[in-house]
UniProtKB/TrEMBL annotation:
Alphabetized GO MF terms: CoA-transferase activity
Keywords associated with the record: Transferase
Short name of any one Pfam family annotated for the protein: CoA_transf_3
Protein name: Crotonobetainyl-CoA:carnitine CoA-transferase CaiB-like acyl-CoA transferase
SUPFAM superfamilies: CoA-transferase family III (CaiB/BaiF) (SSF89796)
Transmembrane segments: none
InterPro entries recorded: CoA-transferase_III_domain, CoA-Trfase_fam_III, CoA-Trfase_III_dom3_sf, CoA-Trfase_III_dom_1_sf
Amino acid sequence: METPDQGQHGSAAQDGRPLDGVRVADLSRVLAGPYASMLLADMGADVVKVEHPERGDDTRSWGPPWAKGESAYFLSVNRGKRSLAVDVKSPEGRDAVRELCAGSDVVIQNFRPGVVERLGVDYEAIAARNPAVVYCSITGFGTGHEPAGRPGFDAIVQAESGLMRATGPPEGPASRVGVAMTDILTGLNATVSVVGALMRARATGRGEHVTASLVNSALSSLASLSQQALVTGEEPARYGNAHPSIVPYQTFRTADDDIVIAAGNDSLYRKLCDAVDRPDLATDPRFASNPDRIEYREELVGEITATLRTRTAAEWLAVLTAAGVPVGRVRGVLDAVHAANASGDDATMTVEHPTAGTLDLLRPGFQLGSAGGADDALPPPLLGQHSARVLGELGLPRDRIADLTERGVVFQNGTE
């Protein structure tokens, strides 16, 4: 479809980004859906985020911490979007959202079952007006899951999917991964499926309804662990920071801090032995091959640990890196971001936010060779920052927009 001037949409007027000219109606909230729509915006799409006119996305109130009144959580997944704050419970608000969806290339929603049908923005209703639409539904437990409509919170899905039981120390309790990983994985899966369906729609003129769920995203992410369970018919043991099938491949304590060594094959193991001045470990028949090292895991780990305790983490990092042994320091989050930037990875980008001021944001995990990219994105929007402009693009006259705003159907932030 043809979109208005990209400067009005929050995407830089650059040529060559994969999704330039694609409009996304983002009816999702919290994390999985907004993460997916943010990645689409990073690739050039014009994303219009539909929000409640009073409270907006739930994550706007998820703090502390705050950046001058803006929730850090919200800021993390909403760059590059425009905010349309409208009451979908009112007939005029529903009409506006229907027009937005019908005129968009992509619709993303994560409402509870039955809500989109009541609003008239379900796939069948939108596809009847726009057969090329790619419509993405994000759920916690899948559209066919019983009982229907089960709430899909990340912690619940981590527990139900086996991810939690696979995480944590061998003798300790099951542990939740420290971020909402199932939401992030679902956002990635939703992005991949939307881009694939868009390619088909561009080639054939026919869109489709794609779905992504937290539980299936979590299950598929277990990969080799789940395949191990299927092959053996047994629950995999929990190894904490070690690896079930490779030794040594785990955290080790040095004289002052923890490091991770990943000797993934026999050659790397021998390099490790030479680097730490333990040639005896390379020639010991108990440790000759990876299956041997797994059998005598406890003995080998004890020997390596005793040696590593004699020097600092920084010293061992220098020695092992020079020897070509995969090694890394166990860093805190802020330390990791700063270290990545210092190493030339460009982990962050800077935007100017209308209230938070100069704001550092994490880049996406990919980089495009085409012109533009995340660096050209608008900052995360204020609630209703673009309401009047988006409604104008949908054909509503100014006096009608003013009337809806006065009656509280629409909220327009005064900064635009």
